[in-house]
Structure formats: structure tokens, C-alpha cells
Amino acid sequence: MARLEAERRNVRLHTGGGAGAQGTVFFRIERSGRLLEASVAQSTGRRALDRAALTVVRCAAPYSAIPEALPDELAITLPVEFLVGDHSAMVAGQ
């Protein structure tokens, strides 16, 4: 998740007015950490923000390898939040 945090710092957006936006991205990674797919699970309601959320996930790849004790593939649903004053994507809980 540290790579996601690093990539979100690279995303700079002008969101316009409002109180920010929240959405969810879904992605799958294989044992080696390679990203298999990424999609918007719940839209922020703004196409540019949805694209930015996917960019964060894609640019953070490859991820760390999955430990042997876990399945060969992981499916992750990740909430994201865009804060108007911050002008960047934020992985929820960070």
C-alpha cells in the first residue's frame, strides 16, 4: 500500500467546487505482484476523478509479491477519497 500512497501524491487535480468526492476501485494482482486488472467499482460521480483513481492503482504496479501462505491471486476493493483542499487522491484510511 505504500506504493499506492506514493503514487497518489503524484496525482494533482482541480476538482472544482464542492466537498470532495469518494469512490471505490477494484483491482486484482497475481503472486508476482503484477496488476491483472483495475476498474472503478463505485464512481466518484466525476469522470476525471475516476480516471485519476485508476491511474494511482496502475502507476503503483508492480506490487509486492504475495506471500506463499496466501492465494496465488488477490482481489482488492479500495475506497478512495478526493479532497478539494488537498487536490490529490487519498487512499482511505491513510
Q: What's the overall geometry?
A: elongated
Head-to-tail CA distance between termini: 10 Å
Fraction of residues in H or I helices: 10-25%
What is the number of helical segments per DSSP (H or I, 4+ residues)? 2
Structural notes for this entry:
The chain has two helices and four strands, in the order H-E-E-H-E-E. The protein has 94 residues and is an alpha+beta fold. Residues 13-17 have low confidence and may be disordered.
Compose a concise summary of this entry.
By secondary structure, the chain is an alpha+beta fold. The chain has two helices and four strands.
List its traits.
four-stranded antiparallel sheet; elongated; 4 strands; 35% strand; alpha+beta
Write the layout of secondary structure elements.
Blueprint: H1 2-8, E1 21-30, E2 35-42, H2 47-59, E3 73-83, E4 88-91
